Amino acid sequence: MTTQSEQQSGYPDWEKLYRLFDKIATAQVKTEQWQEEAEQSRKEFEAQQRRWREEAEQRQKKAEEEQQRWKQEAEQRQKKAEEEQQRWKREAEQRQKKAEEEQQRWKREAEQRQKEFEAQQRRWIEEAEQRRKQAEEEDQKRKLEDQKRKLEEEQHKLEEEQRRKQAEEEDRQWKQEEKERERQNKKEFKKLQNLFTSQWGRLVESLVEGDLVPVLNARGIEVDHTTTRMGGREFEFDILAINGKEMVIVEVKTTLRPKNVKRFLKQLDKAKTYMPQFANHIIYGAMAWLKADSEAEKMAEKRGLFVIRATGKSASIINDKDFKPHGW
């Protein structure tokens, strides 16, 4: 579009063209700058993207390495746990095996003690049977001697009938002697019967009495001597272990039963009445036995009595270590 002056002169307005060209050039420069800035921004963005990608790859690689490390540590912990479990299992098996061996050893020892006790019991029975047979033989022998004496007496009476009056006093004396002998024979026979029936108890008493002082001393009861068979019309105590201020009364039973415990406790309640000479002593009770029925030994321990078991050739107190005896 030409101006009016251009139309009039027939020449273009160069100043305006210059300004136009200048604007175009400026715009072109700015466009190139914008393009360069855009290119620079694009490059910076691409570089930033590469950095982000590299950082992402590094983080990914680091995460994978960390995951691999965690996996290795987890495998190591798993392996260690399995090894520890195997070790525990082996130790448990060893403990189980040791316990079974110990149980077998206890079982063998118990069987051995049972065999020894049964053998000892058989020996005691055989000895008692021998004494009984010996007593029967002696009794039979005395009966034969009595019969022989009676026959001799009858013969003597027939032969001495004519001299009866002269020998009447001698005959009366002889009869008295004969009665005394018969009385002594009956007394001896009764003693043998009592010996046979009480033999078991005396055997146990001898076992217990021999070990009584040291086993009581070990439990803090400082007795220094023993005595046996103390009694009266209303009581009889088997063994007494004594010192100046304390006394342990021991009741001996071949087979301990609950009724024996109850009866013995009643006697202990009256012990100082029965034996006033020991009124200032502290009296403890103990029950000794070969065999116990119905857990009578536990009943005795709960009532504050020492429980003494006779085994083999010795006796021992089987109360708990923290047992406190009842004092009367």
From TrEMBL:
<dbReference type="Pfam" id="PF26618">
    <property type="entry name" value="DUF8196"/>
</dbReference>
<feature type="region of interest" description="Disordered">
    <location>
        <begin position="128"/>
        <end position="183"/>
    </location>
</feature>
<dbReference type="InterPro" id="IPR011335">
    <property type="entry name" value="Restrct_endonuc-II-like"/>
</dbReference>
<feature type="domain" description="DUF8196">
    <location>
        <begin position="217"/>
        <end position="312"/>
    </location>
</feature>
<dbReference type="InterPro" id="IPR058509">
    <property type="entry name" value="DUF8196"/>
</dbReference>
<feature type="region of interest" description="Disordered">
    <location>
        <begin position="29"/>
        <end position="94"/>
    </location>
</feature>
<feature type="compositionally biased region" description="Basic and acidic residues">
    <location>
        <begin position="39"/>
        <end position="94"/>
    </location>
</feature>
<protein>
    <recommendedName>
        <fullName>DUF8196 domain-containing protein</fullName>
    </recommendedName>
</protein>
